[in-house]
Design goal:
The chain is 18% helix and 36% strand. The protein is an alpha+beta fold. The strands form five sheets. A five-stranded antiparallel β-sheet has the order 11-12-17-14-13, with helices on one face.
Length: 331
Amino acid sequence: MEGRSARLAPATLLLAVLVALAGCAGVGPGGSTAPSASAEPTVEVSIRIGPDGPELPEDAVAALQAYGADHADEFGGMWVEDQAHGAFVMLFTGHLEEHAAAVAEIWPRVAVRQARYAEADLVALLEGLDFEAMAADGIELVSASLDTMNNRVTLDVKSNDPTLEVRLELEYSGMVDVTVYPVPGEWSNVAEGPGWRLLAAGVSESDAYTVRAATDADEWAAMWDAIGLDGAPPVVDFATEVAVSFGHGIGSSCPELRLDGVEIGGGVVFSRVSDPLAPRGCTDDLIGGAVFVVAVDRDALPDDGFSLQLFEDRMPCRDCGLADQLDVELP
């Protein structure tokens, strides 16, 4: 067992235990653009401490897992149904009454339910998926996962083949639930909108989660240098416009980001962006910012200034040293 507390606290304390259950395992999104098949998730179980100790002993969890492993030809997986009371669900493809009686001897709060497939067979299918062959056929993998609760493998891919979903599901005899997304086409940033126009867009190493503003030529020159985009700064008429920039954090595997618009109203200016190639698996590293430099009409702004924000709502981490909000005074 992983993550057990070093000492027991009073009766009301919850003991967090990480139990290696065959829950929803996955390969793909959030990890790498070249995923490897895996089916070894961990599920966090909160176990209430009673007057006589933990309601769910560690050895009971291990024994339930061992029982499933000993009956792998019929075991469909298990998960926590009620964390506070240590209630579990275990799936089996047959002999349900026999399995229910056996696991009740290990732990009384286990519901035994019917499964169509053994988990071992689903895991073998998941780990045997030929992603390279799919890619050679023009099929782009988004994710492949073991869905224990629904007793199947889920496969999300991109393709413009209207028959692919049915063909793949038939190929795997119902063991795989396939979702097909269209392959994204050509895309471009929105270039203008009410009260604003796009001046430049690019990647800056310094401006992740950062907004900037310039209200005159000197501030504009310094702002352009600080952002670090190539070329000369675009022309801005500071008698009628204000220059602002929005720097959205990006990772190495998914650097593409599209500007969908700039919202101006109520004394607040913020950007709207989206991933033009979604859905896809992206790494969580940070390589810099996708920066959009915009000219905002002064007529669209309050005379005394405005609040410039990266998003409509500020990011939840207010003390992370991020410059995602700026109060701008207008001379």
